[in-house]
Amino acid sequence: MHKVWQTGGCICGAVRYTLSATPRWTALCHCESCRRATSAPIVAWMGFAPSDVVWCGQRQSHASSPHAMRSFCPTCGSPMSFESTRWPGELHLYGVSLDDPEAYIPQLHCYTDEHLSWLSTDDDLPRFPQSADVEA
Asked: Is 119 inside a domain boundary?
């Protein structure tokens, strides 16, 4: 049996996940693609090895670009994950999809060159104009 770090899922509960490890990294993303995929001005991400995530329920996926797949709950539409050939061997999950979103602790801001001017993020986290390319 795997040790459980956290659990999470979609708004309707049809798709759930269990995490057996802490995130490799966390980031607050300002890119247009993430904003459009979530209809949110900023997206809280966390990266995991796929083997650290156990899914319950069926997700649907779509190619949001030539190099990326995004999954969502087919019942309620909640975004669930992101995978890209740019980061092979990683599964990116939405930080606030955790059952305990306070367990999510952001480490940095990325794609700040696409930051919306009307959004104020007054914190001391490192900021990267593009990807931070954080290593595990």
From this structure: no
| Domain CATH code at residue 36 | 2.170.150.70
Name the pTM for this structure: 0.91
Q: For residue 69, what are the β-bridge partners? A: 63, 83
Residues 6+ apart with CB under 8 A from 102: none
Structure confidence by residue, pLDDT tens digits, 50-108: 999 999 999 999 998 899 999 999 999 999 999 999 999 999 999 999 999 999 999 99
The CB density around residue 118, as the number of other CB atoms within 10 Å, is: 6
Q: Where on the phi/psi map is residue 55: left (φ > 0), alpha (ψ -120 to 50), or beta?
A: beta
Query: Rounded distance, CA 30 to CA 77, Å?
Result: 21
Domain that residue 58 falls in:
6-114
| Strand, coil or helix: 51 | helix
Residues 71, 61 contacting (CB under 8 angstroms): yes
Residue 56, in any domain of the structure? yes
For residue 95, what is the DSSP state? G
- Label residue 136 by pLDDT band (50, 70, 90): very low
